[in-house]
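Can anyone check this?
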Amino acid sequence: MTKNYGLKISDTPDINAYTLGGLIELPKTILQPDGDWSDFLPIYEPQFGGDWDSFGCTVWGTENVIEILLKKITGVEYNFSERYPYILADISPPGADPHYVAEIIRKNGLIADVSLPMTKTYEEFITPKPMTDELLAEGQRWKYILKHEYVWNIPQTKEQRRDKIKEYLQYSPLGVSVTAWFEENGVYVDRGQRNSHWCVLYGIDERGYKIFDSYDQTKKILSFDHNIQVCKRYLLTKKKIKKNWLADLLLNLWYFIRDILK
């Protein structure tokens, strides 16, 4: 039997989601021409404590993709709080849908890990609930807008999976659902079992797909035959800073009056 790490694929997908082949697709901006993101993998952060599991692989996996993208774009090693989107998504065992988690991040932004770090107990991990206004305000100050797209969420052939992964790895690391974990001859297969984990797919080699597993700090090779049920790509754009013309006018007026008074 597979172990569930926190993946719960929704039976009612979001009809407004960006989907490959749909009416609207995300722009195809090439960031990594060779499709290998090995040089930008994030620092390891476990999704579990000493005697408890968050079942939060969709949060850890999605944040890992974002941290990889930002390291590529900015050259900076970012570390965001997993507790923040976990609490906002109201996750509890057996987990959450990765699309929903991405939507929570899109709407609420991310905050630094030091603002809401990992805890020793699960009871503390799921606090504060409701989220504080101060932390929500920090999330809104996040400099980026997250967009995400299904590369697929319906059955694909082995060849379709490989062609799409090869192309879309140029645009971002991919979030993928996998069956965890059955190893055969050095690669991981699904044995006909359902997907139970959400991970980062960050490249391809001659044996299969390169997987970064946030659960146990390992890099794995996924068989080309592995039935990946869901695959998503991500896009980060910098927020445009909106200028408050009225505030600027009043400030300039104050400077003018101050200078006259002097």
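Reply from J.R.: I decoded it. The CA atoms of residues 58 and 98 lie 5 Å apart.
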